[in-house]
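[agent] plan:
  1. take the single chain provided in the ticket
  2. run structure prediction with default settings
  3. attach structure tokens to the ticket
  4. add a short note for the reviewer (M.T.)
[agent] executing step 1
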Amino acid sequence: MGVILQAFYWDCPKLENQEFNWWNFLKEKTKIIAGAGFTALWLPPACKAANINGMSMGYDPYDFYDLGSIDQKGSVKTWYGSQQELEDLISEAHTHNMQVYADMVLNHTSGADEEEINGLDGKKRWTKYNPGSKKFARDWTCYHPSDFERMDNLVFEGMPDLCHRNPYMYSEILEYARWLIEDIGMDGLRYDFVKGYGTWIITAILERFYHKNGSNTFSPFGVGEYWGEDKFITEWLTETNCYTDNPVSAFDFPLRYRLRALCDQFGFDLRILCQNGTLITDGLGLYAVTFVENHDLAKKERSYS
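[agent] step 2 finished; step 3 output follows
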């Protein structure tokens, strides 16, 4: 059991006057955060983003291995800082017995360097990537539509979905997860938009043994963002955890909406909190990560206010 602090919110580097300095900003506060009872930090996507309309929060990843050390996409640092500053933050958090979780965006990428024709359907898309890190380069065969998978022809806000069944993509994703955990020092992974791809890729990441902290069998924590009803989250958890000894957790979105109603609705019936329809009340408490707010919900509800 532990308490995770989402150590960011939408546009936080700008709103806190900490652009390109967020990692240092957090590092200075780790002792206070740990003293308040938090046991882990959930960080925003740390890699170099596309930054198409200015600096972004990182949910439009471009170069997975550039954590703020290469001059591309408008800056050397990411909006949060440099790779060294990130590693210093992780080290400081560990000093105060806190874990650090990386935000993994595996559904899509953005900011491609060239358009190219998809050999399967003949359409032109932005899918040619030549990242400055010279690692995890991508072309049209890495995206949908693909020879490796028939199901997915979708895009996420204009960004083609990655095809994880491509053997190259599969191995690169597993290596990326290994690098974050073993080389950078992350202790767990938060999986963004898990509706967009097969559960088996997360199972593969979690099932692997990692070499960390003097152990050859380190098992990272994992939590998925499945934004939906409890029955769909339950199905996702069941499928993901069916063949692993290191089960993933999920955010309890249904409970969050009840807690929001508790705060906003006059005369809210407290008995509703105990009714079926949340991960906690449906008997999945061991796999539930309860929360009251996150970056997406705060942004969405602020835009409607």
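[agent] step 4 note for reviewer: The chain has a mean pLDDT of 93.
[agent] ticket updated
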